[in-house]
Amino acid sequence: MNLDKKYDESQSLLSVNDLKTWFPVKRGFFSRQQDYIRAVDGVSLELFSGETLGLVGESGCGKTTLGRTLLGLEPVTSGEIYFKNFLLNHAGRKQMNRLRQEMQVIFQDPLSSLNPRMSVMDIVTEGLVQFKRIEGSKEDHARRLIKEVGLSGDAIYRYPHEFSGGQRQRINIARAISLRPEFIICDEAVSALDVSIQAQVINLLISLQEQHQLSYLFISHDLSVVSNIADRVAVMYLGQIFEKGKTADIIHAPLHPYTRALIAAVPVPGKERQDKFAEVKGEAPSTATPPVGCRFHPRCPEAMPVCRETPPPLRRFEDREVRCHLY
Ligand code: SF4
């Protein structure tokens, strides 16, 4: 058992091996050649029971596609996804239905992910009704769930537009925990909220995790937000993991030039701004035509000749993994 935190490293909940999610695109109108958007391009990671793994990177780096692939919402091009030692790639519809109850998602925009015509009671019990898991009154279930996320019981009779952004995200969370899942993907779940409300929602997620031994994959473009909740962090760039390690190590001693650039770009609470790190310049290239060699080399302030020719593998370095020729 990890003594700093509450998760158990002997209990793997989710294991991803060399996962690829590619989407075919035509090179040009008359071209017969096919290119691929390599949204997820050889990702391996592990999530332990009760753990929060932060997944950070710029917009378009593939983190949301990775989350959608784990939930079965995008087809796997190659690689393996094990959930509780069950290979999801080969799951039939019936098995997937059963597993879906244990895997839930909370999206960024609380309003668009809630049906405006449904009452809060119907929203938070929708999954329970669908999977025939209502015992007793639906109203009682709805009241219990809505109180768990810090709203008053009467809220179940109201509609999404009657709530603030933070309250709507609490309703989303109530819906996500209704089936008592073990795994929740939080996809930019607090990004649309004010900073003070972000902190409240993160505290709620942490408290629900402790009560229910939940595991989160917490996807965000904002490393400072991730640092408030994640036990470990994986940094993603152009479809690949560039650095992975314990949150404190990543925040206080980042190894990869891209991680250092991310830290330079965002204020980290309790730390002075990391001006010693260069901010990353320019736009990320397309995942349809990733640069040869290290994918980060056109933007890297420390690029060497080898970086333009040879792609670095993800290597173990001390207590973390890093994809860079410097290590
Ligand atoms: Fe920079 Fe080279 Fe490391 Fe890539 S491999 S991050 S280009 S130093």
Describe this structure in words.
- The strands form 2 sheets. An 8-stranded mixed sheet has the order 6-7-8-3-9-10-12-11, sandwiched between helices. Strands 2-1-4-5 form a 4-stranded antiparallel sheet, covered by helices on one side.
- The chain has a domain at 12-102 and 181-268 and 276-293: P-loop containing nucleotide triphosphate hydrolases (Rossmann fold, 3-Layer(aba) Sandwich), CATH 3.40.50.300.
- The longest helix is centred in the middle third of the chain and has 18 residues, at 195-212.
- Helix 3 (120-130) packs across helix 4 and helix 3 runs parallel beside helix 5 (165-177).
- The protein starts with 7 loop residues before the first strand and ends in a 5-residue tail after the last strand.
- 27% of the residues lie in helices and 25% in strands.
- The protein is α/β, with parallel strands linked by helices.
- Strand 9 (232-237) and strand 10 (240-246) form a beta hairpin.
- The model is unreliable at 273-277 (pLDDT under 50).
- Bound molecules: iron/sulfur cluster.
- Residues 257, 294, 296-297, 300, 302-304, 307, 312, 324-326 line the site of iron/sulfur cluster.
- Iron/sulfur cluster (SF4) is lined by residues 257, 294, 296-297, 300, 302-304, 307, 312, 324-326.
